[in-house]
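Teaching assistant here, posting this on the class forum so everyone can see the example we discussed in section. The complex has two components, and the goal was to see what a joint structure prediction looks like when all of them are supplied at once.
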Amino acid sequence: MACLCYLRCVRKLWAPAQASQRLKVANLHRSVHQLQHKKVMAEEKPWALISEVGEQGYLEEMADIIKPHFHIISHKDFQQNPQLHGPKIQALLLWNGFPVVEPSLLGLLPSLKVVANGGVGIDHLDVPYINSLGVKVTNTPGVVSNATADIGMALLLASARKVVEGHQVAVDPKTTHIPQCLMGVEVSESTLGIIGMGHIGYKIAQRGKGFDMKILYHNRSRRSVEDEQAVGATYCENMDDLLKESDFVMLAVNLTPETTGLISHRQLSLMKPTATLVNVSRGLVVDQDALVKALQSGTIRAAALDVTYPEPLPRDHPLLGLPNVLITPHVGTNTLTTSLKMVQQMVDNAVAAVKGLTAPNEVKPK
Amino acid sequence: MAEEKPWALISEVGEQGYLEEMADIIKPHFHIISHKDFQQNPQLHGPKIQALLLWNGFPVVEPSLLGLLPSLKVVANGGVGIDHLDVPYINSLGVKVTNTPGVVSNATADIGMALLLASARKVVEGHQVAVDPKTTHIPQCLMGVEVSESTLGIIGMGHIGYKIAQRGKGFDMKILYHNRSRRSVEDEQAVGATYCENMDDLLKESDFVMLAVNLTPETTGLISHRQLSLMKPTATLVNVSRGLVVDQDALVKALQSGTIRAAALDVTYPEPLPRDHPLLGLPNVLITPHVGTNTLTTSLKMVQQMVDNAVAAVKGLTAPNEVKPK
């Protein structure tokens, strides 16, 4: 009976001082066969380490998805007594990069079974190392794609049509008349070049098609003919061709050694001087120094970035001072709808891993 | 021959009027005189002028100006909206009015979607936080609302409204629309749009309400207290029509009270708003200064269309886009 074994394991992990809890556990043995998967008694729930519940971490609605399945301990409470709390923790739920998964933390979590990441990017995790400790890594692909594709299009349109500048003029106390010279560039029927045609890149292509944009894409592998035709996308085996022909270059790759610095001086110089670079990948995909130079010199028209390196940028970084740069603070999945789906997926992954089952989204090292 | 070109009155060539590239489209067909030069000697210049090219509402077409232009054949507007023109009155002077439908639709639909997305995903606030000298860490609570798979209600399904529907479909949005007349089944199916004969139904069900009507006596104040109260408290109003389509006082109250979530406006009344207007101080309002057609691509197409209309009218031919009074 898996439940009984689990109970014994839980008892072993608990500190000796919790005698009253042990009594409850003993009582539970009598009705253990009645326990249903979704009605796990409070004491049987495994423990999960999170950053915190609150504005800087999980909103209440998000925590409410976790609580039926896990006892939650915040990183701050954990740090009060790592020796006491550490051995209980079987899952680490990672949101916006917190708590930071480093050897010093992992060393305090001898029972850890899974690092469940909220989000699809796992470049901040040393997966082979974590696996070597007998810990699985999971992420949340799929559920992030709509919101991320939406932010890519939002940035593209806001940059092209100067929405931020327009708003600033419209509300400025000194504005006396409508400016005639706030000219943007046309989005409809322009050429959108997508670098990275995975789940997110493909949804961006779909959205671009709605604007009658000509879609080019570059990817490690070519998509099927049906996929290409559905969004009117043309494969560019050579990324240089995409860079030369695009009015908007959209980065939708994941961060790997191969994509680090993918867009540097040479790539920017191939782009049209009227072109816009949009990045919803990771900051390190772009050589930021090269980008600054390209924007200052007019090598490209503008850049719109949801991601930078680091985040946030140092306050004296040249990107912050350029008029042709739009930056959002990594809000790619920042809607309640998507955040809740991500947390649900994290929980599903963590529950499976803690039970020793196959997690739906386990990240395997290459 | 240079002597045979007719004369056209414009606002001016320069940042506040026509860019050089735009003027270059006019010059092969017309001698141009700026309003400032015209005013130096209206009695001398007035009788020469056969076309008035109207851009961003300038020069202002009023009886005092028209009285100085005895040879005027056409007022050629740049843009599709002609609510600022008294067409019957102008026609009574033997002068045609033309506009530029069609060429404005892409850019206007694009700005509608740009405003919708920027408002939904808090792009302006995000940028301000990202570049603020005081920002030390990434905020976790800058939450927007989901656009994909939400419901987009389009009020006014003309050329522009239809293109907005097409763009919304790309985001897998559910499209509702209200229009004076229903579109064909093929049109509806092509963009997945559902007709709402009763505008109230559209208001109740939409996450984003997009106004794409022209301004007429029937659409003035179309969105007022009652309409706003029917909308979801999580809904966003987007206006790319004219400011007067919305009762702005009602909108201010609705935004202050949380009756609706937010508004994104490319148009207001007046433009620009007085600097003490409450709309300017609300955190859930995004305003752009009537930039709906502000791309060089579209502006050049508009000027070309204005010129084509004016050339035809001056020759006594049928202009492609003559505006007939109802």
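For the discussion questions: Chain B has a mean pLDDT of 96. The CA atoms of residues 16 and 163 of chain B lie 29 Å apart. Think about how each of these relates to the inputs above.
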